[in-house]
Amino acid sequence: MGGASDLVLAHSGARPEPVVREAGDGLRWLVLSEDYPRLLQWQDAIGRGGGELVAAGPLVSAAAEGLRRPFLDLITELGRRYDSLAWWSLRISERNTAVTSLFLHCCYLAAAQTELGARPTCVVCDSWEVLESLEEIARGRSIAPRWAPRSRLIPHNVGSSARGMVRLGRFIAGTSSSGFQLPGGSTRRPSANRWS
Question: How far apart are CA 68 and CA 74, in angstroms?
Fold first, then answer.
């Protein structure tokens, strides 16, 4: 996987065994994942590879304790600034930290930052955005991270952007009584969960 690095980044969707084998010896492993069966696979592979597993629970809990109030204050401020139907239609506007993954991912990022530079560490996470943000933060601290092999055929943001566009299209189509213009000039109107 390249030369030595104080930080290795891996997505939890990767196969754990090859990542553990290629990452090398002497690493601490911080696994941040909501997927419990996947977490167990990583823990098993790390244990068989002789790695040291960092207890993520206390780090994430401490991050949540420190971030909860500032996060809720930010959401309140955004609600004031963007007071509109579009804002209030978003799940994040509810200010419930359990409704979306955003707060959890902020906690993951804060937890991972506490491990930067202390000892060589591999951070495994189920969010590409957390990993990429951590990469940027590490570079800002003069730490050159390396990535475990990415197995995706298309960039991750293409898939999430495409899903977002589909959701937006469904929202617009579902709220429009006059339908909308498709390429080629035809008009489609929504009716009872299907197109007419």
Answer: 10
